[in-house]
Amino acid sequence: MTRDIRIKMCGLTRLKDVDAAADAGAAYIGLNFFARSPRYLTLDAAREIAQAVPEGIAKVSLTVDADNATLDALTETVPLDMLQLHGSESAARVVEIKARYGLPVMKVVGIAEAADLTRLDTYAQVADQLLVDAKPPKGADRPGGNAVSFDWALIAGRRWSLPWMLAGGLTPQNVAEAVCATGARQVDVASGIEQAPGIKDADLMRAFVQAAQG
Ligand SMILES: O=C(O)c1ccccc1N[C@@H]1O[C@H](COP(=O)(O)O)[C@@H](O)[C@H]1O
pLDDT (tens digit, 9 = 90+) per residue, 84-118? Predict the structure, then answer.
């Protein structure tokens, strides 16, 4: 029996990645606007990729503590279905962004230890989805996309009143175990489906979906 797991493939940088993600069965694709990422896209490149995404696959922007001017330009240029906030945006900022852009917001919380879990409850009050990711390692120059996992036992059996995704170091090799350990119904992956930073691999994308869905 297969598992009904929805998959977000994050950090697509080429038009052919869209076809590969759609063929593999992605439910969401992520467009990365964090300048220090190897997956960073200019607005024009992001618009071209977003316009190629088939109906039914949600297009998600990834930003880190973006100001209104940045988000204004982004939402005016790129057709989007959801905003992923991957920085230290406050709960009040989440509320403000939801109201200003009228798009669902997915707030990311980085987890390294049990004490980090309380932030999930805070954001569950205001966000439309939660993304439970690993905290970046010390010295990392980006807050995500570091191919690092956290201890999945920390959230085993935890449920929130809104949809949530598991992220952080997921690969075709470990995603089935991650899903079983956490009960996640949605997962997000960037590095684990790449042949090089920022370069997705169609075979890995297919293998990831097959492993996640069982
Ligand atoms: O992918 C990036 O480069 C990135 C940069 C800044 C913030 C977040 C980023 N990616 C997100 O991080 C998670 C985990 O990535 P990985 O699978 O461990 O590589 C991923 O869900 C992206 O949404």
Answer: 999 999 999 999 999 999 999 999 999 999 999 99
> What is the model's pTM?
0.97
Other residues' Cβ atoms within 10 Å of the Cβ of residue 121? 13
- Partners of residue 29 on adjacent β-strands: 9, 59
Q: Is 110 in the pocket of ligand 1 (CB under 6 A)?
A: no
| Alpha-carbon distance values, 148 to 18, 43, 139, 161 (Å) | 24, 28, 13, 26
| Structural domain total, the chain | 1
Q: pLDDT (tens digit, 9 = 90+) per residue, 178-203?
A: 999 999 999 999 999 999 999 999 99
Q: What is the extent of the structural domain holding 39? A: 6-213
Token pair listed for 204: 């890995």
Question: Looking at the domain assignment, is residue 70 inside a domain?
Answer: yes
CATH of the domain at 184: 3.20.20.70
Mutating to test ligand 1, I would choose from 8, 131, 133 the residue with most ligand atoms within 8 A of its C-beta, which is 133
CA of 148, closest atom in ligand 1: 18
Ligand 1 atom, smallest distance to 147 CA: 18
Q: Could you tell me if residue 1 is inside a domain?
A: no
